[in-house]
C-alpha cells in the first residue's frame, strides 16, 4: 500500500496557480521576442557628404579600422560645419569620434586613436620606415595644399570639364602626384603603401574626387590610382549618399 501511494504521489501534476501561469507566459514571450538592439559604442560626427573632405577622411579611417559606429550628421548651420566647409577656420570639430566616452577630433588624431584600439586593422604600415613615410605624407596632406583646397573645393555632384587650373593649384597637384608615384615605385602596390589601403590613402581619397570633378589631366599612374580609390565599396557608398543630399550651403554651389 505504501509503495502504491508513493507512485501516485510522484505522478501527481503540480498545481498551477494563476501567478505561476502568468510567470510561465512571460517566460515564453521573452524567449520568443527578438533580441533588443544594442546601441553602438561609437558615433562619428560629420558634416556634408557632398562637400566635406575631412568628414570623408575620418569616415574612411573608421571603416578601415572596422569600427562599429553611428553617423551623426551636423546641420549646415552648425558653426563648426560652416567654418569647415567654407574654409573660414584652420580649426574645427568635424569630424569628431566619440568612442566609449572618449571624444577625439582632428582626422589624424582619430587615425592614431583607432590604430591603438585596432592595431590588427593595419591602418599604418607594419614596417617602421614605411610607417614613418605614411605619417609624413598624411601629415603633408593634413596641413598643406591650401591652393588646391581653395581652387578645387570638393563637390561630388558637380563636374567641370576643361576646368582651368591656375598655377598655384597646379603646383599642389604636381606635388601630390609626385608623392603618389614615389609610393608606387617604393612599395610596388595598387595603393600608396602596398595592396592594402592605409591612412595615407584615406587622406588623399578626397583629392581623387577633386581631380575627377575638375577634369584635371593626370599621368597614367595617377589616373589609374584615382579610379581604384573611387571604386572602393566605401567610396561608392559615400558618393551615392552625397548625390542624394540636399543642397543647403549656397556659398559652395557657385558657377565656375
What does this structure look like?
The chain has 256 residues and is an alpha+beta fold. It is 53% helix and 7% strand. The protein has a single domain, classed as Glutathione S-transferase Yfyf (Class Pi), Chain A, domain 2 (Up-down Bundle), CATH 1.20.1050. It has eleven helices and four strands. The model is unreliable at 1-14, 28-37 and 251-256 (pLDDT under 50).
Mind sketching the topology for me?
Layout: H1 2-11, H2 18-32, E1 42-46, H3 53-65, E2 69-73, H4 79-85, E3 96-99, E4 102-105, H5 107-117, H6 128-143, H7 146-151, H8 167-187, H9 199-213, H10 220-230, H11 233-243
Parallel strand pairs: 1-2
Antiparallel strand pairs: 1-3, 3-4
Helix pairs in contact: 3-5, 3-9, 6-9, 9-10
Which tags fit this structure?
single chain; 256 residues; Glutathione S-transferase Yfyf (Class Pi), Chain A, domain 2; 4-stranded mixed beta sheet; 11 helices; disordered N terminus
The structural domain count equals 1
If helices are DSSP runs of H or I spanning 4 or more residues, what is the number of helices? 11
Overall geometry comes to globular
Which residues form runs of ≥5 with pLDDT under 50?
Answer: 1-14, 28-37, 251-256
CATH topology name, in short, is: Glutathione S-transferase Yfyf (Class Pi), Chain A, domain 2
The CATH class assignment is Mainly Alpha
Assign a percent range to the helix content: 40-55%
* Gyration radius, in Å: 27 Å
Return the structural class. Answer: alpha+beta
* SSE arrangement, N to C: HHEHEHEEHHHHHHH
Mean pLDDT score: 83
Kindly report how far apart the N and C termini lie. 105 Å
The assigned CATH architecture is Up-down Bundle
Strand order of the largest sheet: 2-1-3-4
Count of beta strands? 4
- Strand percentage, roughly? 5-15%
Described by strand count, sense and barrel closure, the largest sheet is: 4 strands, mixed
Amino acid at each position: 500500500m505504501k509503495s502504491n501511494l508513493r507512485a501516485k504521489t510522484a505522478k501527481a501534476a503540480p498545481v498551477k496557480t494563476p501567478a505561476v501561469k502568468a510567470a510561465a507566459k512571460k517566460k515564453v514571450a521573452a524567449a520568443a521576442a527578438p533580441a533588443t538592439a544594442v546601441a553602438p559604442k561609437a558615433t562619428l560626427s560629420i558634416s556634408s557628404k557632398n562637400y566635406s573632405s575631412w568628414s570623408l577622411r575620418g569616415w574612411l579611417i573608421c571603416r578601415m579600422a572596422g569600427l562599429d559606429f553611428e553617423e551623426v550628421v551636423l546641420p549646415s548651420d552648425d558653426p563648426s560645419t560652416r567654418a569647415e566647409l567654407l574654409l573660414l577656420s584652420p580649426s574645427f570639430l568635424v569630424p569628431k569620434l566619440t568612442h566609449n566616452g572618449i571624444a577625439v577630433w582632428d582626422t589624424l588624431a582619430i587615425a592614431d586613436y583607432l590604430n591603438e584600439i585596432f592595431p590588427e586593422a593595419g591602418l599604418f604600415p607594419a614596417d617602421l620606415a614605411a610607417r614613418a613615410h605614411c605619417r609624413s605624407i598624411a601629415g603633408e596632406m593634413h596641413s598643406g595644399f591650401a591652393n588646391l583646397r581653395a581652387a578645387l573645393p570638393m563637390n561630388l555632384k558637380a563636374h567641370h570639364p576643361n576646368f582651368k587650373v591656375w598655377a598655384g593649384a597646379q603646383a599642389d597637384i604636381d606635388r601630390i602626384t609626385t608623392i603618389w608615384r614615389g609610393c608606387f615605385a617604393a612599395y610596388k602596390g595598387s595603393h600608396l603603401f602596398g595592396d592594402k589601403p592605409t591612412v595615407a590613402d584615406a587622406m588623399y581619397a578626397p583629392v581623387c574626387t577633386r581631380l575627377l570633378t575638375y577634369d584635371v589631366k593626370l599621368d597614367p599612374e595617377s589616373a589609374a590610382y584615382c579610379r581604384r580609390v573611387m571604386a572602393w565599396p566605401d567610396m561608392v557608398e559615400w558618393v551615392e549618399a552625397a548625390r542624394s543630399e540636399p543642397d543647403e550651403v549656397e556659398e559652395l554651389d557657385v558657377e565656375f
